Amino acid sequence: MPLNVVLAEDSPLLRDGLIGVLTRFGHRVPAAVGDAGALVAAVREHSPDIVVTDVRMPPDNSDDGLRAAIALRRERPALPVLVLSQYIEQSYAAHLLDLGGDSGIGYLLKDRVGDVARFVDAVARVAAGATVMDPEVVRQLLRRRHDPLQRLTPREREVLSLMAEGHSNASIARELFVTEAAVNKHVGGILRKLDLHVDGRGHRRVLAVLAHLRA
Amino acid sequence: MPSRTAWHALARHPLGFLASQWPWRALAYLLSGVALGAVAGVVLLFLAAAGLVSLAVAVGAVPLLGVALSGVFVARVERRRLRLVDLDPAPDPHRRPGRPGLRGWLETRLREPATWRELGFTAVSLSALWWMDLLVLGFALVLPVFLMTSPAGDPGAWPWLVVGLFLLPAAPYTVTAWAGARAALTRSALAPRDGEPGAELTEVRASRARLVDAFDAERRRIERDLHDGAQQRLVSVSVMLGMALLDTDPGSPAGRQLAAARGEVALAVDELRELARGVHPKALTDHGLAAAVGNLTARSAVPVTVDVRLPYRLPAAVESTAYFVVAEALANVTRHSRASRAEVGARLETDLLVLTVGDDGAGGADPAGGTGLVGLADRVAAADGRLRLSSPAGGPTLLHVEIPCR
C-alpha cells in the first residue's frame, strides 16, 4: 500500500537519495524539508501516514529533529514516527521510547538506509504500528543489563534481541531458521525468566522488553 | 571534603554545620568587625577633624594624608579577618615601592588604584557595614535572650519565652549568612584585580582554563564537520549503492562488487561514528552529563552502577571535564583493575561538582605509572578542581574529583 511520507533531512544529497528510495518503492513524499520548524508545518499541512526524520537538524543543530518528532507525536498520538540517527547512544532512543502509545515508533541508524529494501520495509512496518529498534542500539541495551540476562540461554538472548528490534515471532523464526513453535517456546521462557507479564505478541511486547532493558 | 567558606559549610550541611566551628568563626568575624569599625571610625573622625581644623596652618595636610591612606591599613586587617570565614587566600594587591624610604612608599601607594579602592571600601565599611554587624548580632543573639529572660516572674508573658526559644536556634544561621555576605563583599573589593601583583596566579589559571575551553570548542567543531561532511556523504553513497543494487542481479559480478562496496561504506560510517564520539560526544551537549555518563557505561565491559543526580545543567566546560574524567576512569577500570563492578556518582554540592568513580578491582593504581591518570589530574587542575585517588594494593580503588562550577 503506498504511503504518504513527510521526510526531514538537512543534507540535500541524502534527502534526494531518500526521496528516490521511497518513490522507487511506490510511496509518495508530499514534503521533504530540511529543518525542524518546516517539519512541523509540513506534517500539519499534509497529515502524512508516517514521518521519517533525521535527529540533528537546524535551527539549533542539536537533537531538533527528534524533539520535533516527539512534539508532533504528542500533538497527534496516532502519527507513526521513524527517526534516522547518527547516534547509537541510548539517550537518544530513550526520548523516543518514553513516548509509548499505540502507533508505530522506529529508531534506526542512518547507514541502514543503504540496505534500501530493508529500510523501506521498516518504514512500512512502523507505519503499520510496529516498533522497530536498531539492532546496534538493542545490542547496547543488552550489554548494559548483565545480571538478569545471565539466566537466559544463548538462543534466548538471540531471540530477545530480535524481539527488542521489533520482530514478530514469524519473522524471528525466519531470521533464525527455526519453526514458529520453537520461537513461541523461547519467548515464553524469556518473559518468564525476566518476570515480564505481557501478551506474547505485538507492539506492547516490544515496548515492555525495551522498558525492561532500559530500567 | 572540608568546606572552604562559612557559606559553603552552611549550604552543604545545614545541620552538621551547627556542630562545626563555622558559626563561632562567623561570630568572631562579626564581633571583630564591630570592634574594628568602632576603633577605625573614632580614629578617622579624629584625624579628619584635626586635619580640617589645622588646614589653615599647612600641617593639616598630614592628618588628611593619613585619612587618605587609612584604607591600606584597614584593608590589611580586613584581609586577615577574612580568613575567619573564607579559607581561600586573599593576596595583597599592592606593589613593592619603587624606592626605599617613606617617600617611595607614599609615591607608590598614592598612585595605585588599589589604595583608592581600599579607601572607598573603608568609607562604606565605616558608614554602612559595621553597624549592620552590630544590628545582626543584636537581633540574632541579644533579642532572643532578652525575650526569654524579661518575663521572669510575669505569668502572662510566657509567649515571649516561646518566641525567644524559637529565635535562638536561628542565630547561628543569621550570623553566618551575614558574615558570609560581608566576606564576599570584602573579597570582591579587596582581592587583587587584573594586573595587580597577587592577580598573576589568577591570570595563569585563567589562561590555562581558556586553553582548555578553546580545545573543547575545537573538538566540537571537528565533530560537527565530521557529521555534516564525511558522514552524510558516506550515507548518501551507501543509498546510491543500494539503489544501484536494486537494478543489478545480485549474483552477477557487478552485483557482488556493489554489495561489497556497500559493506565497506557501512564499516567506514561505523568507524567515523566512533571517531566523532571520541572527539566530542554529542549526547553531552544535547542531553547533559547524566545521560552522557549513562551512555558511556552502556558501552563498558565491566558492569557500572550510575548515580548521577544533578539539579540542572552545568556549565559546558564543567560538563566536558567531568565527562572525560569519567570516560578515562572507566577505561582504566576496564584495562587495569580486573574489577567485577564499578560505580560512578556525581552530586552538586552548592557550587562544587563532586564526582566519584569506584571499583572493586585489584587497586594499586599509580599516577606515576601511566599517562592516563596524569592527564586526568591536569585536566581537572585546569578547571581549578582537585583530584584524589585512593588505590591501595588489593583494592578497592576510589577516584574523587571536585570541580567548581563558577
3D architecture notes:
The complex is a heterodimer of chains A (215) and B (406). Chain A is an alpha/beta fold. Chain A has two domains: 4-133, Response regulator (Rossmann fold), CATH 3.40.50; 138-214, Rossmann fold, CATH 3.40.50. Chain A contains eleven helices and six strands. In chain A, α5 links the parallel β5 (105-109) and β6 (131-133). With 406 residues, chain B is of the alpha+beta class. Chain B folds into three domains: 6-197, no CATH class; 200-280; 283-404, Heat Shock Protein 90 (2-Layer Sandwich), CATH 3.30.565.10. The model of chain B has no long low-confidence stretch (mean pLDDT 85). The chains are: A alpha/beta (215), B alpha+beta (406). Chain A binds chain B through residues 11, 13-14, 17-18, 20-21, 24, 56, 61-63, 86-92, 94, 110-111, 113-117, 119, 140-141, 143-144, 146-147, and chain B through 224, 227-228, 231-236, 238-243, 245-246, 262, 265-266, 269-270, 273, 276-277, 281-283, 285-287, 291-292, 294-295, 297-299, 303.
Relevant terms:
heterodimer; A: 215 residues; alpha/beta; Rossmann fold; 2 domains; 6-stranded parallel β-sheet; globular; B: 406 residues; alpha+beta; Heat Shock Protein 90; 3 domains; 5-stranded mixed β-sheet; 5 strands; 66% helix
Provide a brief overview of the structure.
The complex is a heterodimer of chains A (215) and B (406). Chain A is built from eleven helices and six strands. By secondary structure, chain A is of the alpha/beta class.
Secondary-structure topology with pairs:
The complex is a heterodimer of chains A (215) and B (406).
Chain A: E1 4-8, H1 12-24, E2 28-33, H2 36-46, E3 50-54, H3 64-75, E4 81-85, H4 90-97, E5 105-109, H5 116-127, E6 131-133, H6 135-144, H7 146-149, H8 154-165, H9 169-176, H10 180-193, H11 202-214
Parallel strand pairs in A: 1-2, 1-3, 3-4, 4-5, 5-6
Helix pairs in contact in A: 2-3, 6-8, 8-10, 8-11, 9-10
Chain B: H1 6-12, H2 16-19, H3 22-53, H4 61-82, H5 101-111, H6 113-149, H7 158-167, H8 171-190, H9 199-246, H10 253-279, H11 282-287, H12 289-298, E1 304-309, H13 316-337, E2 342-349, E3 352-359, H14 371-382, E4 386-390, E5 397-404
Parallel strand pairs in B: 1-2
Antiparallel strand pairs in B: 2-3, 3-5, 4-5
